Amino acid sequence: MSTTTGKLLGGTGRFLDDRLHGARGLRTFLRKIFPDHWSFLLGEIALYSFIILLLTGTFLTLFFQPSMTDVVYHGSYTPLDGVHMSEAYASTLNISFDVRGGLLMRQIHHWAAILFVAAIMCHLLRVFFTGAFRKPRELNWIIGVTLFTLAFTEGLFGYSLPDDLLSGTGLRILEGVLLSIPIVGTYLSFFLFGGQFPGHDIIPRLYVIHILLIPALLLALISAHLFLMFHQKHTQMPGKGHTDTNVVGQPMYPYFMAKTGAWFFFIFGVTALLSTFAQINPIWIYGPYNPSGISAGSQPDFYMGFMEGALRMWPSWHWNVGGYSLAFNVFLPAFLPLGLLITGLALWPFIEQWITGDRREHHVNDRPRNAPTRTAIGMGGVAFYGIMWLEGANDIIASQLNISLYLTTEIARYAIFIGPVVAYWVTKRICLGLQRKDNHLLEHGVETGIIRQMPSGEYVELTRPVSEEHRAVLAARAQRPQIEAPAADEVPARSARGGMGRLRVTLNKVLTESVPLPEGNGHGNGHGNGHAAEPTAVTAGDGHAGEVERADGDGAEG
Amino acid sequence: MSETQPGHDLPPDDGGPQSRAPHRVIGTPPPAQARTLLGDAPGAAAPEPPRELPAGPDNPARASRAERVIAACFILSMVASIGFIAAYVGLEVHSLDATLRSNLALGLSMSVAFLAMGVGATIWVRNIMPDVTLVEQRHPLASAEPDREEFTKTFTEGAEASGFVKRPLLRRTLIAASVPLAVAPLVVLRDLGPLPGTSLRHTVWRRGTRMVIFGPNTPLRAADFSTPGQMITVIPQGYAENQEVLAKATTIIIKFAPGEIIPRTPDNPEGTVLNWTVDNIVAYSKICTHVGCPVALYEQTTHHILCPCHQSTFNAVNGAQVLFGPAPRPLPQLPIGVDSQGFLIATSDYHEPVGPAFWELG
Fold first, then answer.
1. Number of folded domains that form chain A
2. Which of A530, B199, B232, B281 is deepest in the core (most CB within 10 A)?
């Protein structure tokens, strides 16, 4: 930096600090430490796709007409010349074919929306599986779950705006869902649509919700989410020197700023690349909405797929109770799985805290294998969601795999109960197995593939002790605190009495199931292994050591 | 993270931040003075504090190679951005082919501009900036006990001074006043739409309403709809652009071979009502009784009507009874006849509500 630049910066800095008193706070901000791990980038993808959505969305509002007034089209897309359509649909055609860059902006907006929800889902799973939601981050977790719910609602309302045949069918389903709500459903539907479906109000109403109400909520909650993350400092993955009382990583300025800036460019670049080569939501092919028309293979965007699947697999439960309809064939699939998922996610930190009795602050994340039951429950949830999601595309699956359509639904009806149980069991076994593998590495070191013949004629394989960094990761298996165990006289502790107490003790046993670390870990390496001293010979050569390191496979993270 | 390249004479890296500082030639002015953002404090001659970040890269040779690559990336990005502007100015849209060309040119230049910036910035971080790892201490999030007590005291004092605790009359009337205030915003939403009334129970079909083919909107003679196995969508004449009407009144008519229809009898209460058919032509509502999608797929050989949305399947020969899927009741049958000119007409409205179930349906 030249002296002139320094003076200029110094002058500006002084001007601002004289008025804002920012030097001290800003200095802390610049030196804020950010831990490194690839999985921490998932949340950033969500953040940056949101920014892309704001930018491209603003552009689209300049040209889009949220109106259901009937017009006859005479634009550049000649196949639809002379066709009756809503102004909303006509203006979307106009954006696509008569505004330079309009099609690109529409496609970036749609791809970014898909990326936004997908990144939120991956980020949510990352936080769940690593236990990053634990105290003190429960509030931020709840904000995150709210953001997830808002995000796919925002997506649903957004792709409904062009008033094309596909999204209009989606709105028709929304009407059916509203009508199924007991007592107030018919009224809700008439109020939302401004009368009978489709009416002339739904597009303008969804528009204001889509461009004002939900984005404002998203913006406010994302800000709160980031502020809390910043204030509480980011969690870190286990590693050498990583403790619950420190943050190890690189400073905000210039490292994190440069890295995250690059990441933003990559995400925008990839979204632009997708929008250049991968067509998305070609509404001119679907045609304008008409309640009499539909095309086979209608699919919503991926994040609504699980709701669609629930609607498809649910039995035709409908009862007439005292002259009124209980349309549980629609009401339950529309609200029960979603409600279970959202409530379960929001309450999980508190449920886990109650079961484990662990009220300590946690800043070092769990490796998923080190919380086998939590990971297994999470995978059970993933299976539950995934089966509904697949069933949402059962017609495509049936036609692609050439199997009976009805069979796919029958399978889904069983799989929704069996799948999560199997996923739970398999995941738990895998986690416990991985823990044993870690123990093996800690106790016996890394196999080198070097076989040596002993003077006695015996052949042994040399092992190399795991590196300090790797050992810190492997040994990061927190012993979970036991809730009060029965005293010597076998009388259960106060908190373990009664139905809830006994339930808690049982759940605690299941939730804290884990393979204990080998005794004396962290010091002795390969005790019981007569050749513990040998590995020095192997680590001597530089290049050789690198080779051995790679063979180890499960190295310390980035 | 940093890779040590063989062949370069580097100071030993033991992980400590100080040890990574490159060797400096004696006499170089201390950089901290030149870059003090807030200007020099007058008369300050304090010794320079230890640096947290080294000023130079870990590997200067590698850094200067990287510098050229980064600069090339940024220039590429610049060229791509200029290309984007050129493509915007130079390429018109207004047709499928032109839009395709414009989208390719704009999208590609935009992607390259962003990706080149990203690549450049990444190489910059990895090769120019010295690889450091710093440690920051966390502090317990809970406030110190005296602070908490102080807060409680302040809060309690404020509550007491306000009289909110001591004067229940004020407290209760304030709460009583807020309740209707909170309800009012809900009440003003009432005019969002009309009340449903019985509108979901009726369609515009009347005795004598002609059926027209959906699309061309031409009426249809029963004699012209003569091939068994055919299915077409019809709508009431004069309502082609009225979506609220179509959302309930859209109907499918199917022609069967003689004897295929299974009539409604006391033993088969869901069967097709023969009196409501003409010449083996049967009319059913096209609006699925599940959530209202049009049931558009018809399989001639099995006489199955299938809803493409959620795959509810109805038996067309037997009163559209539900064979599979989440639909709870058959598609309602429309009574049809022919007028004096032989055109297909409705002979009344549907005898039961069409479309998805709603609370008042019963």
1. 2
2. B281
